[in-house]
UniProtKB/TrEMBL annotation:
This is Glycosyltransferase RgtA/B/C/D-like domain-containing protein. The keyword Protease does not apply. The lineage of its organism: Bacteria, Candidatus Curtissiibacteriota. It comes from Candidatus Curtissbacteria bacterium RBG_16_39_7. The chain crosses the membrane at residues 9-29, 81-101, 108-126, 132-151, 163-190, 196-215, 227-243, 275-300, 307-323, 329-345, 352-370. Keywords: Membrane, Transmembrane, Transmembrane helix. It comes from the Bacteria. The keyword Protease does not apply.
Amino acid sequence: MKQKTLTDLALIAFFVIGSTLLIWAPFVLRLKSFWGLSYPANGLFTLWQNFDGLNYIAVAKTWYCPTLLEQNFSSLALSPIYFASHFPFYPLFIWLFSSIFGFLNSMLFVTLLFTILATWMFYLLVRDFKLTSSPLWLSLVFLALPARWVVARSVGAPEPIFIFLILATFYLIRKNWCLLASLATAAAVLARSPGAILWLAVIFSTFGPWFTGLIKRPTQSFPWKGLSQILAPIAIFGLFWFYKTQYGDFFAYFHSGDNIHLFWPPWSIFNKNQFWVGTFWLEHVIFIYLLVAAGAVLLFKKKLYDMAIFVSLYLLASFFVAHLDITRYLIPTYAFVIIALENWLVSREFKIVLLILLIPIYLFSQNFILGNTAPIADFSPFR
């Protein structure tokens, strides 16, 4: 690996750690107030309390055992089957590092670790396949935008590990390392249920050109390497079978309660009476749809068809999500939107804009973390 690449990767790790410590600083230093925001006197507890990190710790400590969930995590006030919606790949790494850091700090460490790995993977993707003239700068943009991603990579959340696996899948496919790509896809479906969208995008991208090409060239060779993608359905089948052993219900995920947030008809988010909406101040949703849709179109124009298909499918699925936090649901698409908008994002004008926006991004992150907390008083079951 070239010296410049190693230097860039080291700089990325520095910026990930540095920016995360800046987000954590008011809590670690137990500030009483900052920029008009009032902080509780419990330090890191606020970071630990952020949704949905504690749920993943509960999974890491019980592996979906209903009895243990009821006995040890009643403070979460959730039915044991609710945790079937929290897939096991993130809890697995929390568990692996818990012997070193304890479960609470392991949760934050795993988030930080996979943020570094995800940004490294983004850098390698855009550099190795010449998707930008400024891979380091674009990687720093990836770290900063959108602000909701900054929050997700600073607390207990599965997004960093999920995004790492998504980017790894696209990178490995481009390297023609099909078996490794299939393993990454299988891991992604075990990290979050929308990993199924990634799998569909890979299937469409792999077999779609062959299928449509049969009209012109009936004798063209079948993409046999794509068959390794059978690993993802096998992985989800294995998980659901494990749910059957724990819950006695193979389809426990679909019976886990009010946490899937998919509704008919589409765009039910524009109904203030929806439980997870509760407001008519929703114009920002239109801008989010517009941004991601524009990204998909530009990816098609750049002939990055696999990425364009993934973003399009993800956006299509989001039309059925009725949840005010739609920005979080679309976090897995933003890396590709950044690639789509690369020409502008590397410009001098945008660098000035981003420099100005860093302060409101930081304030948004602080305000969100302060408000997005579970009402937990006793942390002893989570340690």
